[in-house]
Amino acid sequence: MPPSNSPNPAEVPPPGEANTIEWIVSVTIAQATTRTERRFAWLRMGFCLVSLGVFLLHLVRYPADVHASQIALELSIAALGVCLSAWVLARTRDRLVDDSVKLACAGLDGLLVTIALAGNQLSPAGTYAGLLSSLDVAIAPLTILTSVLRVSPRAVLTSSLVISAGVATLLAIDAARGLSVSPKLPLYASYHVAAVLLAHYFTARAREIFGRVGQVAQRAQGARQSVRALLEDHHDLRSILTNLQLGADRLHEALQGGEERARLATLEASLGAGIAALTKGAETTRNRALLALEGTDQPSRASVDEALHGAIAEAKSLAPDLAVSFDSAPVVTPVLFGGGTAALARLLLHLLINAREGNGSAGAATVRLVTRARRGAVEVDVLDDGPGFSPALLGKLGRDRGYTTKTGSSGIGLWLAQSSLQAAGGSLTLSNAGGGCVRIVLRAAP
Which of 60, 96, 121, 402 has a 20 to 30 A CA-CA distance from 186? Predict the structure, then answer.
C-alpha cells in the first residue's frame, strides 16, 4: 500500500497557519522522502538477501574457505538489513516519514556499511592486505552521498559520523595488526571529507529548492482561494442588481398606477441606495481583484515611502473625513511585494479604508502610520482610534476567509492582504492598542 500523501495528524498545523511556506515545504519534503525511504527499504532488503544467497552458495561450494565468524557476520548483516527495511515499510505504510525515522535509517545504514567492511578482516590470512587496499571501502563515501536523498541535514550528519567512526575503527584495527595504512590514507581521507562536505552542500541546496517550490505553491493556492472569494463578491453584486431590477419594476408600476409622490420618493431612494451600493461593490471587487492578482506575482522591489504617500493621498479623496498622520523617519530600505510600489500603495489604502469603516457601526476618525526599519525587514503599523477588533475575532480576522463584523461585507479584505504579504515573505498581524492596530512586515529587498 502506498503511503498517504496527507500529513500525520500531529503534523497538521493549528488553524491559520496551514498556508505558511514552512509547513508547505515540510510536507513536500516529507512526501518526497517517504517515497525515497520506501525505495531504500526495498533495495536494502533485496541487496541483503541476494548477498546472503551468494554467501551461502559459496559456503556450499567451498566450505573450507569460510569461518564460523564469517557465517555469523553475514547472517547478522542480512537480519539487520531485512529487519530495518521491514520496520521502515511498516512505519511508512499509512503515514509520512519523520525525522526520527530518517535518523534511525541513516545511522543503521552506516552501521551496516561498517559491519560489511569489517567482514574483509575475517578473510583467511594472506588474502587481506588492509581496508584501503580493497575497492569495497568506496561504499563508505558513496553511502554518505546517498544520504542527501533524505533532504535532512541531521540525517546527513548522522550518516557522516557513524560511517566516519566505523572506518576509523577498522583502520585502527588494521594498523594494530601491522597492515599498511599510512600510504593510502591521505588520498582516501580527501575522498571521504569531500563526500561529507558535498553531502551537506547538496542537502542545503535541495532544501533551498524545496523552499522556492513552497513559495510557488503558496502563491498558487492563494490565487485559487482569491478567485473563489472574488466569485462570492460577484454573487453579492448580482444580488444588488436583482434588487435594482425589482425596484425599477415597482417604479414602473407606480408610474402607471398614478400612485402618490411618497411612494415614488421611497422607490427613488431605494434605487439610489442600490446604485451607490453597486458602485461601491464594483470598486471593492476591482481593488480586491488587483490585490489577489498581485499576490500571485513574483515579488518585486517597492518603496515604502512612495506607497505610504500614495495611499494617504488616495485616502483623502475617498474618505475626506479621515485624518491620516505619518511622522516617521523616511524609509530608504526597498522591500519586496508582488506588483511593486503601486500594489503596496493599494494594500495600504485598503487598510486605511478598513480602519475608517471599523466594525460597520463605528469607525476611526484618525489613523497614525508608524514605520520601523529592522534587520532584513520593514514594519508598518496602522494605528486608529476606532472600536478596534473584537477579542473573539482577533485570531480569525485576516486569517480565515469569511469572518467580518460589517454587514454586507464578505470578510475577505484582510485575508487577501495577508495572503499577498505572505506570498512576498511578509506577514500581517492584528491587535488592539487604544483602537485597532494592523502591523504589516515587509521583507527587505536584497
Answer: 121
